[in-house]
Amino acid sequence: MLIRTDRDGLQHPIASEITPQGVYQDRRQIMKWMATGVAGAALASWAQREALAQQIQKPGKHAALASTRSTAAGAVTMEKVTEFKDASSYNNYYEFGTDKGDPAQNAHTLKTTPWTVEIEGAVKKPGKFALEDLVKLAPQEERIYRLRCVEGWSMVIPWVGYPLARLIEKVEPTGNARFVEFLSLADPKTMPFVGSRVLDWPYAEGLRMDEAMHPLALLTFGMYGEVLPNQNGAPVRLVVPWKYGFKSAKSIVKIRFLEQMPKTAWNKAAAQEYGFYSNVNPNVDHPRWSQSTERRIGEDGLFAKKRKTLMFNGYEPQVGQLYAGMDLKKNF
Ligand SMILES: Nc1nc2c(c(=O)[nH]1)N[C@H]1C(S)=C(S)[C@@H](COP(=O)(O)O)O[C@H]1N2
Ligand SMILES: [Mo]
To answer: What's the mean pLDDT in 324-332?
Structure first.
């Protein structure tokens, strides 16, 4: 069944209108890789978008882009998709500054080609993936996920990527792999806040192995039918929709398979506020504020109602089983 949402009529600016030329060329290169080598409907639509992007380059024109959706349970929502301009201008990416507008202002310095992702630790096949090989490892799917930040706001974003499980299967974890750690790029030359003491760099996150293997955990290369904007974590990030946004590490350069639970950047910065699990949970307040409601970005007028935050961000039917028998107040 094809579910119609507001997404179908969505329009947003094409990359060339909102980014400097160098960044745009980086993205065009990645889109070419995505359009070659892998068969299937998703990639055909990538190729169409590429063609469309070439035709429409005049500032002020907007291109309506087609999309191919995942059929995985939980991969589509009936909710209105957040506008591209909001999703790409209201960001958390502390390597580029701590204000919501900083990443969009500053992340143009991030160089996303060439890019490699290194796989280390308890796997039979460790090594380095060039980005162009990583994007072709599995068919690209579009998934419309809510992303809920621990700060109390949320967005609905059409992500493009494939389940992280596809990569994990490929590198063949050993029996010792119980956790997966994700490390972001930390380049003081291109990232003005790396070196500041806000966080202990590189940005580090982690998942338990069964969480990482869950079909909703997405290794993400694009959004809104285009390659990720730098400020959203180009060229490859994680999206874990049932956890607070900070679990979804951006611009990943290393993935490590570990026996022990890894330390995460936010847990190191404030252990009493950010635990390892960080599942979206309206019943466990942040020590300094409630987590029971959220503000949807784009709806924040004076009279906009707050939304009730849902257990596991609304993905309880899909992921609840992962935490059966666990005390989620202790394991926050
Ligand atoms: N490397 C890195 N990844 C990161 C962050 C960051 O500061 N650095 N911020 C996290 C937080 S707090 C959130 S809410 C999401 C925001 O993703 P978005 O800007 O694409 O909405 O990215 C997460 N990933
Ligand atoms: Mo966040």
So the answer is: 97
